[in-house]
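Per reviewer request, we include the raw input and output of the structure prediction for the construct analysed in the revised manuscript.
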Amino acid sequence: MPGKANMIVVGMADLNATKSPGVLTTLGLGSCVGIALYDPHMKVAGLAHIMLPDSKAIHNNSNHAKFADTALVKLVAQMERLGAKRASLKAKIAGGAQMFAFNATNENLRVGDRNVEATKRILKEMGIPLIAEETGASFGRTVELYAEDGKFLIKAIGQGIRVL
């Protein structure tokens, strides 16, 4: 396992990519979605921490990493610069929780669900297979993505650790 020296922190509404032996991590995924992309042949990993599903619905949309539709395009381009091939990419996602108890029939309050739905739709449009996910529920998650083998570690308080 790589040490902390190889750990790259991806903030909220941020994204980054790395080659092996790098590790990408993002903290506090609530309704946000962590989108992990991995090229197993080139050992290139990319991670985006998106907050909202659609940049077109927001006037101030200059931060491309904030939205599912623009973050994925930017992340794939960054990974390709490191040698990844789009045709080899696989995706795993985590997050999209319903963090507060309220009437979930109001579309504007279903941010987690909408983030997951948008992420899945855009991955499909881009031809990137989604091979694993841990989404929904009502708890936050911290994730780590290992460029060496594509392991996606998910930690949640009271839920233990899962590896996708």
